[in-house]
Design brief:
The protein is mainly alpha-helical and 189 residues long. The protein has one domain (2-181). It has seven helices and no strands. Helix 3 runs antiparallel to helix 4 and helix 6 (130-153) packs antiparallel against helix 7 (160-181). The longest helix has 24 residues, at 45-68. It starts with a helix and ends in an 8-residue tail after the last helix.
Length: 189
C-alpha cells in the first residue's frame, strides 16, 4: 500500500512539474530529449527531421503570436501551444522507444556517428535551430539511404568509388553542420 501511495505521489509531482513549466522551458526540455535521442541513436535522422520540422512550425507560431500580442501569449494561445507540445512530446517518446535505431558500421559509419554527435551537441547548446536541424537530418537521412542502397547492391560492402562519393557527401554535410552551428541563428530560449 505504501508503495502504491509513493507511486501516486510521484506521478502527481511529475504532472505538477510539467504543468508548471513555461512554454519556453518545455521547448528547451523537448530539445534536450531530442538531442539525447540523436546522440544515443534512438532517433533516426528521418524521425529527427520530422520532429524538428514540427518544432520549427510551433516556434514560428509562438513568434507570430507574441509579435501580435506585445510579447505575450494569450491563455488560448498558450493552451494551443501546450496541446501541440503534448503531441510532440508523445511523438518523441514513441520514436525514441520504437524498433528504429541508428546503427553505424565501419569507417563510414564511424563518421556518421560523429556527425550525429555534432548535430546533437548543436541541438543541446541551442546553436542549431529546429529548422537547421531538420535540414541537416534530412541530408543525413539521404546519405544513409544511399549507403544502404549501395551496400545492398554490393553484398554488404561499399566499393572504393562509393566510399569516395560518401566521403565527399559527408565532407559537405560536415561543413554545413559547422556553418549552421556558427552562424547568428540560435534556437529561441
Amino acid at each position: 500500500m505504501k508503495k502504491m501511495m509513493n507511486l501516486i505521489a510521484a506521478g502527481a509531482f511529475l504532472a505538477a512539474a510539467a504543468y508548471g513549466q513555461t512554454v519556453d522551458q518545455r521547448r528547451e526540455n523537448q530539445q534536450d530529449r531530442v538531442a539525447q535521442g540523436i546522440a544515443s541513436g534512438q532517433l533516426t535522422p528521418g524521425e529527427t527531421t520530422r520532429i524538428e520540422r514540427q518544432e520549427a512550425g510551433v516556434n514560428r507560431q509562438i513568434h507570430q503570436d507574441r509579435a501580435a500580442n506585445g510579447g505575450m501569449l494569450t491563455p488560448a494561445e498558450r493552451q494551443q501551444v501546450n496541446h501541440e507540445q503534448n503531441g510532440m512530446s508523445g511523438e518523441i517518446y514513441r520514436d525514441k522507444h520504437n524498433a528504429n535505431q541508428t546503427h553505424f558500421r565501419g569507417e563510414v559509419g564511424a563518421r556518421q556517428g560523429i556527425q550525429q554527435q555534432r548535430i546533437a551537441q548543436g541541438v543541446r547548446s541551442g546553436s542549431l535551430t529546429a529548422r537547421e536541424t531538420a535540414r541537416l537530418e534530412g541530408k543525413e537521412a539521404g546519405v544513409n539511404r544511399e549507403i544502404r542502397a549501395d551496400r545492398a547492391a554490393n553484398a554488404g560492402t561499399l566499393t572504393p568509388q562509393e566510399r569516395g562519393q560518401v566521403n565527399r557527401q559527408q565532407n559537405r554535410l560536415s561543413g554545413q553542420i559547422y556553418r549552421n552551428k556558427h552562424n547568428a541563428a540560435r534556437q529561441p530560449k
